[in-house]
Amino acid sequence: MGEQKTCGKLPAQKVPRRYIAAAPLYFLQYESPMANQDITFTPDPDADSISSDVAGFGGLLVSTQIPTRADGSLELGDITVQSECTLQALKVALERAGSSMDRVLHLTIYLTDMADRAAFNEVYKRFFAKPWPVRAAVGVAALAVEGMRVEVTAMAAKA
Predict the structure, then answer these.
(1) Which domains does the chain have, with CATH numbers?
(2) pTM of the model
(3) Which residues of the chain have pLDDT under 50?
(4) Which helix (H) or strand (E) holds 90?
């Protein structure tokens, strides 16, 4: 299996292969030192970011986006403007990684106020069409920056 990683003074536990297959993508990269060869990361345009813009494994891509404008600044206006910026950022990220919005399989939408769901959906319909991606809308108490009202995580097929 390769070198065992440790966290602090405790040795890492070996995970049976039957569980590795169903593990989240971030877990797979720790199976052995060679595991990253089949995982790709598209860097975030913000050099100071501690998150990749898109991660890929096999034919799948994963990306999380927040309401950023084209110049990289954060948009903290109303939910409609934030939704437009968030989905436009997702579109750009996926295209940079070799995919597109019509290849999105799943979208998780995080909203700080579930009353904003209808306004988000109006913007969503301008970026997506039938067959709709599988999706979930999740109400959260807060997001990373005060005033941020929406964040999305998408899984897409590579083109």
Answers:
(1) 56-157 (3.30.1330.40)
(2) 0.76
(3) 1-34
(4) helix 79-96
